[in-house]
Amino acid sequence: MSTLIVPPHVPSVAEDCEQLHKAFEGWGTNERLIISILAHRNAGQRKAIRHAYAETYGKDLLKDLDKELSSDFERLVLLWTLDPPERDAVLTDEATKKWTKSNQVLVEIACTRPSKGLILVREAYHSRFKRSLEEDVAYHTTGDFRKLLLPLVSSYRYEGDEVNLRLAKSEAKILHEKIKGKHYSDDDVIRIVATRSKAQVNATLNEYKNEFGNDIIKDLEHDDDNEFLPILKATFECLVYPENYFEKVLREAINKRGTDEGALTRVVATRAEVDLKIIKDLYHKRNSVPLHRAIVKDTHGDYEKMLVALIGEDDA
Amino acid sequence: MSTLIVPPHVPSVAEDCEQLHKAFEGWGTNERLIISILAHRNAGQRKAIRHAYAETYGKDLLKDLDKELSSDFERLVLLWTLDPPERDAVLTDEATKKWTKSNQVLVEIACTRPSKGLILVREAYHSRFKRSLEEDVAYHTTGDFRKLLLPLVSSYRYEGDEVNLRLAKSEAKILHEKIKGKHYSDDDVIRIVATRSKAQVNATLNEYKNEFGNDIIKDLEHDDDNEFLPILKATFECLVYPENYFEKVLREAINKRGTDEGALTRVVATRAEVDLKIIKDLYHKRNSVPLHRAIVKDTHGDYEKMLVALIGEDDA
Lengths: 316, 316
Hints:
Two copies of one chain form a homodimer. The longest helix of chain A has 16 residues, at 165-180. Chain A folds into four domains: 13-69, Annexin V, domain 1 (Orthogonal Bundle); 84-153, Annexin (Annexin V, domain 1); 165-240, Annexin (Annexin V, domain 1, Orthogonal Bundle), CATH 1.10.220.10; 242-310, Annexin (Annexin V, domain 1). Chain A is globular and about 65 Å long. By secondary structure, the first copy, chain A, is mainly alpha-helical. The first copy, chain A, is built from 20 helices and no strands. Chain A has helices spanning 13-24, 31-38, 43-57, 61-68, 71-81, 84-97, 105-112, 115-129, 133-140, 143-153, 165-180, 187-195, 198-212, 216-219, 229-240, 242-255, 261-271, 276-287, 291-298, 301-310. Helix content of chain A is 70%, strand content 0%. Chain A binds chain B through residues 119, 122-123, 126, 130-135, 138-139, 142, 146, 150-151, 154-160, 162, 187, 191, 194-197, and chain B through 119, 122-123, 126, 130-135, 138-139, 142-143, 146, 150-151, 154-160, 162, 187, 191, 194-197.
């Protein structure tokens, strides 16, 4: 389900390093060369390159990339090159520091990563920022938002398939009552979304639909005045329909007047090695235009080329 | 700081297994032999024995121990023989199911284990109970207790020594205001105890003492009507003065009319390989009697012998 294309014969790590080093030399930077290497190596290979680069040249590859590249292209290359947990640590740190009520990045990372993956993010956060993710989230948020976000980023959900249908029934009823009464940040609503396994939440939402007729996502849609509702809705979407959630983020980023490069970059960099193929197909279906065509229309230059490469549509 | 005595020449794992198997054979059980082996092997050795026992006899050593032993002795041997994260998973599961407002076992385990240790407990909880620790804790608790316990058991605190003194000052002030106003379960009080690193909480309590004259533990002592206060106090104690906390648990368990074997067993089984030596010294100082003498006075039989062995006072 990855869109990453790794060539059948990958050059040695030493060769990749040498080529990257060359790309930085002389007048100007060889962006095409950088894309041809980094956009076609998986996480393990990129990590090995970064390691070997430091050994060979005594410098951090990321710092050199930072020096040589600029704007959206730079951001995409840097995020992509980072090890996934470290990348998520950087993204959660930014989302926490610049936190606004409409920022859904914390929910996205807390709810779409595998349980152990989220622990690795928290570990990377420790080593990079000398603090814990949850302490920063708790410190920078307040009220209902803290009440939801703190347990979400601290979760270590059970990942087995076992589902308790009796419980799903009773918790579907709780959700329905609370949502009907507009008690969106009720203790039990938050307990259910923040602690139950994804399989269990899914079973609960099925019971909800069977029993009360509507998809819960639909029931969370009609309340323009409530600032908390969108983040609760995003939580359910990320837990149960992550690919649909990401398709929507891409759609909104691309349809926005001026394009939301931040969101586009984030989704492509974080999902290319995970489920971007599914997201891409969903995008095509939902928008009647292939994702790469929409991207080519909305972006340009090296940024465009790197995006197209990562979504698996260049000629590599 | 461990009280465990492992003999200089440990028999092979196969020999230990054979001896344990012999101890179960024929009329009666050879409890002395069981103690002489299990009470003198470290966690890694006990794990290897359990593994080899299953390989050799096709049976779970813990089930055989369960069948052959009884009452307090059985409980101590079983808890001790379990791998530490699995043992904590069992203890937290029991504490959650039989949860009462005065039960401090969840706080004790959440706040005295190293950060990675607590993650291992949550992992062991997944595999043993097919649910997450935090979902069970959230489900079985309510109100202020859930508000404190859920983030405590979900925490993955930063463990570096770095301390932010400015922050310690400002959070000491918050704690003082809230405690003075008896807002013990205030959002910020819980945020501070549940997310800050132990070093940071310690710095905050030092600032508290410098600025406001009293130890925070003292300020949390005078309110008989408040059910939440004892658990908040235990949280601070476990985070900053764990050995004092455990000494107090032992003291109260032993001084109680009839002895609280549950608490005595738990502290000895969980701390013997960690810091029981310090706790033992504190106990002696605080009670003017050595811990082993107090134990011998209050317990008897194989249970007494196993306790004495684990606190490092038998002739092994």
